[in-house]
Fold each of these.
Amino acid sequence: MGARVIAVVNQKGGAGKTTVAMLLAGALGEAGHRVLVADADPQNTARHWAGQGVGFPAEVEDYSGEEGKLHKRLRKRLDEFDYVVIDSPPAASAPVTGSALRLAHLALVPIVPSPLDIWASARIREAIEAARMKNPELHARIVLNQLQPHTLMSREVIALLPEFGIPLLSASLRSRTVYRECAAGGTTVSALGSRARMAQMELDFLRRRVLALLRRLGNH
Ligand SMILES: Nc1ncnc2c1ncn2[C@@H]1O[C@H](COP(=O)(O)OP(=O)(O)OP(=O)(O)O)[C@@H](O)[C@H]1O
Ligand SMILES: [Mg+2]
């Protein structure tokens, strides 16, 4: 069977798309899966992350010039991998985002729990709904990112999420300096050793929830 495809998408810039895509891809690679990160963002931050020569455990390739043909190009590669993770630009209506959503089994939408971020994310829901016309199997989950769990703001924003119309993944990422260090050093969380143990546990849980969801959604 071909790779399962996860598109990490949001209209909002800086919501954590690249961070979620790369941390998840790194965790899947370290668990022994064959993983491709398709960097569909012209900023190429995923490529920069992995291109620091320290052996990132997933292939990261530039697909940012593919525009609406991304799904056709990637479809040809699905037999080579277990998982394809697409990192997309902050543009819900860009052809490359639509193309990613057309191929994906699961769209992950990172959202920082703040009202501004939720308002700015509304258009991605429309893009996901539009993609379902051609890809009825597409499922979507919000991933809370940069969570500061015990704050009133987090609680208030989380209470608003049911109105957003995309279900919440039962795993989230807290705001942690070690995640920035991973990007800066081109590594995964586990490469940071025991001082990143809480982050490793958090990410392991995220990986397991995503895999369990993909299994539930279909046939893997
Ligand atoms: N959970 C986190 N903890 C700490 N820092 C984070 C976390 N998630 C993201 N960041 C930081 O927030 C910034 C934005 O994250 P990132 O680049 O992943 O977002 P993005 O959605 O890919 O942005 P863009 O829309 O520009 O592609 C980066 O500096 C990143 O290191
Ligand atoms: Mg990015």
Amino acid sequence: MQAGLAGYSDMAMRVVARRRGCPYAVTEALLDQVLMRGGRGREKGAILCPEDHPVAAQLMGSDPDQVAGAAKILLEAGFDVIDLNFACPVRKVMGRCRGGYLLSDPATAITMMRRVRDVVPGPLTVKLRRALNESAKASDAFNQVFDEACRLQFVAIAVHGRTVEQKYTGTADWNFLRALKQRTPASVTLFGSGDVFTAEDALRMYTSTGIDGVWIARGAIGNPWIFSEFAALLRGQPLPPPPSIHAQREALLEHFALAVEIYGEDLASRQMRKLGIKYSKLHPNGPEVWREFIAVKNQRDWNTVLQRHYHRDGPGIRVPSVPDAEDVCKDSCEPSTRNDSVPLPGAA
Ligand SMILES: Cc1cc2nc3c(=O)[nH]c(=O)nc-3n(C[C@H](O)[C@H](O)[C@H](O)COP(=O)(O)O)c2cc1C
């Protein structure tokens, strides 16, 4: 599945991924307060289209009743699944008792899950990290939240194998995922998250941990082909060749057009810079293409980059199994805490 990725996993990124084999996707974390106020966050972050199903809306908040109210709004907006975020490590989010903070306050996390369960008859899921930190108390809190989610018949639980305090440092603990799978009821789908940058990484996580599905995050940004590549590996087929230059051009054109539908040309052009530079990793002249995407100001500039670098077809190159320096350092998963929840470039 395609992960929740603040500032990236909007309807445009989800649809581009679906057209290339992604079976299921989730929004970025949406703030309960913004939804309850009916602000622009609702209009942009919660935008869907008929092609964008099945889709989960991820909610983040601190007040159980308010989160339950926002869940109802998202169901009415057409989302198939409600996902709760108890994982985000961003300081501002933690400071407001949201996201990963809830792994330090299992009583509130449990109340929130129950309130949401009361109002959502359909599928519910939750995103966790493996604990707040390495302490025994944090591990106990994780277990309480995890067990209650199972008891409340959440259909799926996604677990990032880092602690909240780890943010993006170190590595994700896949051994933790393996052990967790062994005690997860068969009725609950366990998604594993952390350090999946290529289809081969996804297969390694899947086979070495026994989890039911892979939550593909940074590895999907600018590489929507990761889903069909992973599917090929799962079928026992060889890894397909990297997408050709023309296949890349098609995805870039689609992604831009969908972003314009959501944000209008001006904002879409700014939004798409950070995506263009991710796509550029698959281009043989990556560094040059990167420099040109970063300077895009409007649709004409975007088309100029495509005309210059994607006009002639040829083989693409394979993404390496390492994170971008910018992704590692970033205090990620920052949904908007503004009224205007349109993610700004670099705001993730
Ligand atoms: C830029 C960025 C934004 C993210 N936003 C969200 C988010 O909105 N919701 C969420 O559940 N996780 C979010 N995450 C966490 C990812 O979904 C994922 O769990 C994490 O990056 C580990 O997977 P990876 O190492 O394969 O990238 C974000 C991560 C990044 C890098």
Amino acid sequence: MRIERLNLARFRSFTAVEWRPEPGINLITGDNGAGKTSLLEAAHLLAHGRSFRGSVRDGLIQNGQADLEVFAQWGERHGRSRAVGLRHAGREWQARLDGQPSTSLAELCTALAMMTFEPGSHELIAGRSEPRRRFVDWALFHVEPEFLPLWRRYARALRQRNALLKSGEAGALLEAWDQELAQAGEPIARMRALYLQHLAPLLARAMATFVPELGEPKLVHLQGWKRQEQSLLEALERNRARDLAFGHSSVGPHRADWRIDFAGLPSWNALSRGQEKLVALACFFAQGQAYADARGEWPVVALDDLASELDRDHQRRVLLDLAALGAQVLITGTELPTALVDGRVPATRFHVEQGEVRRLV
Ligand SMILES: Nc1ncnc2c1ncn2[C@@H]1O[C@H](COP(=O)(O)OP(=O)(O)OP(=O)(O)O)[C@@H](O)[C@H]1O
Ligand SMILES: [Mg+2]
């Protein structure tokens, strides 16, 4: 998958800009605050329906403007060309996918596949559970056509059940929503477990490359309710009194998580900050490989501020590997990463300055 054109209008400091990245490695340089990250952020918004730096309302729309627009055109395997456009006004949004109006952000986000590694990515290892669920679900949205309808059905049932719990209404209606939640939730948990099983050897391989000192990793899925042998329906019933008391559903795949156990460490708490980043990076590589195994091509890979995130050797490794895999890579930095200086990894260079993206020759 490769982005051919990206247009931003009224997006952070960009009034209107067009960027045409090339296949392979693209390096965007520019001073602090020039808008490098914003370019990746705009593409990420189209691919994920959200930014990795807060919500649209938190400042993606250019100061003093009412809305923003982002458009991307990209090519897929077998030469298929696709396009997505999004106009976002903070609350309302409108989108077009391949020329047709789209009413679902979730549908939109299953089109363009892009993975972003940025300064906050170590949160995948050390942070809250939500990014870890999103990480697994991203893959399932892209490779399992049944996942999106199930996920929607589950989200709706959860909203309904929580509303009933808040109103303190037990009885038949609550039982009916328990059934519905369990019917959608069980297969979601199974798909996530299967995906993590598939990911485990890929993660082990990526970790052997990036953090061999941590030893063989073990991926553990926590499905969101206590015992693996207990059904979700049983778990919901067992926790009903407590859920009524607290007014929300305390068990289910919305509480799922996963973790990595390291052979050589007591827990992830013992990782250094740099190791957290490298483990997160290994997760990204494994994820990209799993996607490529299923879809026959790599997602677009964005690496924000690579040089400040990784030491030189790791930068070189990442860039050599990604170049060999044929992925389109979008890297930002204030300077040329040393791995690109000796010309062993060919790259197309761009410079961002005063709201313009200029190609360097
Ligand atoms: N809503 C907004 N309206 C106008 N300008 C904005 C808005 N949000 C951010 N900016 C400005 O846009 C720029 C954002 O730049 P961005 O974070 O993309 O820079 P960068 O090139 O990645 O910088 P760094 O090297 O520091 O990471 C900054 O100059 C910031 O002040
Ligand atoms: Mg930046």
Amino acid sequence: MASIETLFGMHGKVALVTGGGRGVGRAVCELFAQAGARIAVCDIDETTAREVAGALPDAAGYRVDISNEDEVERTFAQAAERFGRLDALVHVAAIFPKRDFLTMTAAQWDEIQAVNTRGTFLVMREAIKAMKAGGRGGAIVNISSTSGERASVTNNSGYGASKAATTNLTRSMAIETAEVGIRINAVLPGAVATEGAKAATERMKDDGLQIGGPMTGAGRMPLGRVGQPLEIATACLFLASDASSYVTGISLPVDGGFLVS
Ligand SMILES: NC(=O)c1ccc[n+]([C@@H]2O[C@H](COP(=O)([O-])OP(=O)(O)OC[C@H]3O[C@@H](n4cnc5c(N)ncnc54)[C@H](O)[C@@H]3O)[C@@H](O)[C@H]2O)c1
């Protein structure tokens, strides 16, 4: 039987992580490094990307805005030059400003879609190109959200639409890349305790918006608590490693049971 190391280990592999500077992305970088991967830590915040990379055994930090086509192409090229191969993309970066639907401007709508939807398209496109060129297949893990499946909290419509797109892009491309050995899956967090989530809630209160919706209802979080970044990262490691070699196109909820409540 194959060893745990062969199944879940990432030795000799290179992973590019978007949004790696903090929160879930940072936990992914740290866990994947423990599993033996070399990591390209990518974030719009260059300082945190470099800090996270600097604390890992074999990693480099890159500043990239994933909504910008030139920057995404340049970053993948720089990572290819530095590491020589790409085995996994864990795409974590996203924004989640809470906005009232009726007063949201088209520019605010476009901002969410530019980062979360166009950004997902761009990083997937570049990762698939790099993996195809490498000829060894690979794994892509997109962090989507339960909000892409189900209305979860109020004032979150633009974000929910962008995450529905992320989950759908996962499925669409899974069937188009399977023949070259590239598996593509999504992880759907429910609520996770991160700096980004805390800041979004505080901004919402400042904007006078109500926090409500199914996810805040009694009994809707069967495990009775929000998740921690590491609990999302472990699901990513499963889907990026050979442990999930027969899994593609799925959406794995990591949500404390929200979607079945
Ligand atoms: N925290 C939650 O409750 C929750 C719930 C469901 C899904 N998610 C998803 O999990 C992922 C991580 O969320 P988090 O809570 O860790 O967020 P976070 O805000 O703490 O971290 C996100 C990171 O992405 C980076 N980023 C933002 N815009 C970028 C851009 N244009 N280009 C490159 N990097 C950019 C930020 O600088 C930051 O380091 C996101 O995809 C989010 O939608 C989070």
